[in-house]
Amino acid sequence: MSTADRPGLTDRLVDEAARILVESGPAGLSLRRLATACGVSTMPVYTLFGDKQGLLAAMHREGFRRLGAALEQVAVTGDPLADLTALGAAYRAAALASPHLYALMFGHMAPDFSPGEQGRAAADATYQPLVDAVARCQRAGVLRGDDPQRIALHLWAVAHGMVNLELNRQLPPLGDPADLFREALGYAGAPFLTAPA
């Protein structure tokens, strides 16, 4: 088996590349430096990614693949509002598990990088479960309104903001970050509830 076929190598390279990107910026990330950091020759790195743009694209897609996998683990139950909250918790958990990739997925870590059509499709696919969960709450009469997109955007903005504050160590010392996240989601959803929680 070649080095490029070793199980887990791609994940290891992607995670290390994301770490280098965050710590050294785009100019500090190169396929050669990545190979050295992971203790492999440059051949498998170039074979897997081609060039730096290919590496960034792979990192972007992998980040959204991991996020999508986390969201897929959220079970659909008889309580659509609890399911919606569980999606938020899964989003936070995915971000905390891959913080360096999250910085590339939703930030400007690499200004010259454009995710392209495939990358945008990967991102859109991870947003749709939130829209679907909001729509399910509306059909169940738990949330009011007829446009799940607008409510989903509002909820995502709060979740994303809280996650960014936590990852950047900017949350005020008001308690456990997980509790603060749940509380923020509760406040974000409150205006849309059909009845007081």
Automatic annotation (TrEMBL):
Residues 30-49 bind DNA. The keyword Transcription regulation applies. Pfam families: TetR_C_33, TetR_N. Residues 7-67 form the HTH tetR-type domain. InterPro entries: Homeodomain-like_sf, HTH-type_TetR-like_transc_reg, HTH_TetR, MT1864/Rv1816-like_C, Tet_transcr_reg_TetR-rel_C_sf. The keyword DNA-binding applies. Keywords: DNA-binding, Transcription, Transcription regulation. This is TetR/AcrR family transcriptional regulator. The lineage of its organism: Bacteria, Bacillati, Actinomycetota, Actinomycetes, Micromonosporales.
